[in-house]
Design brief:
Helix content: 25-40%
Structural class: alpha+beta
Distance between the termini: 15 Å
Order of helices and strands: HHEEEE
CATH architecture: 2-Layer Sandwich
Radius of gyration: 13 Å
CATH class: Alpha Beta
Number of strands: 4
Strand order of the largest sheet: 1-2-3-4
Number of helices: 2
């Protein structure tokens, strides 16, 4: 997250807070509804991903009991999926 935020701030100067603002909103939404997003099928674990529509990053996460764990934040424009 920190690396993505630093990159975003350096390369997207017209909207330097957009990534953190969108990520924060997504995390708050996941806290309320952890079934958001779609099932990430290539992984055998119960991983889901949620697209941050304005920045085009995916948040990969897993729900365990009463917690949501973010396992990766990955650009949707990359030609490959993250190693989870």
């Amino acid at each position: 997250m920190r690396e993505t935020d630093a990159w975003w701030r350096e390369h997207r100067r017209a909207a330097p807070d957009l990534f953190t603002d969108e990520l924060e909103a997504a995390l708050l939404a996941l806290a309320e509804m952890p079934t958001l997003g779609t099932r990430y099928e290539p992984d055998p674990r119960p991983v889901r991903r949620l697209l941050l529509s304005r920045t085009h990053y995916h948040v990969y996460f897993m729900q365990e009991t009463d917690r949501v764990y973010v396992v990766a934040i990955w650009s949707a424009f990359r030609g490959r999926a993250p190693r989870l």
